UniProtKB/TrEMBL annotation:
This is Uncharacterized protein. Residues 17-50 are annotated as: Disordered. Residues 34-50 have a biased composition (Polar residues).
Length: 50
């Protein structure tokens, strides 16, 4: 039973991370619209590496 509860905790943690994730993709999104700006893609790399 403890194993099942542990698995549930993992699933809950993963789900919570997934819920928070959509906030981050909105940051790197603008650079995709303007790929001609190297500085913006560098910022994107910095943001995603955090």
């Amino acid at each position: 039973d403890e194993n099942v509860q542990e698995n549930l905790d993992h699933l809950t943690n993963n789900f919570n991370e997934l819920q928070m994730d959509p906030v981050h993709p909105s940051l790197p999104a603008p650079p995709n619209d303007t790929p001609s700006l190297p500085a913006t893609s560098n910022e994107k790399t910095i943001i995603t590496s955090k």
